[in-house]
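Can anyone check this?
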Amino acid sequence: MSIAGIGHNTDGIALRIEARFFNSLAKYSGTGRLCRTIEVPAGSRVGDLIGLFQLPINEIFLVLRNGRDITPGLYQGGSVNAEVALEDGDVIAFSGPVPYSYGYGAPVV
């Protein structure tokens, strides 16, 4: 089965992704570790990882792809660009709010 929009010759192609979990999201790694290497089908997106790990969207305050922020705007729980396409070797980091940050209700100065 190929995923729409990525070509007919992608059947069986898997991407190796490293997922990292920080702060309140660490418990969703499923292994008790903060990092996890997985294989996903070609054409997978960040939203697919969120679903795979059953991350509660309203608890995600920051998503980094290879160290670059892909969360739109000011860090808001539930505001994630789930349509970002994954590539082989990507490192995707998910973080809940950091203590004493905007996500915990601290004033932004």
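Reply from J.R.: I decoded it. The chain has one helix and five strands.
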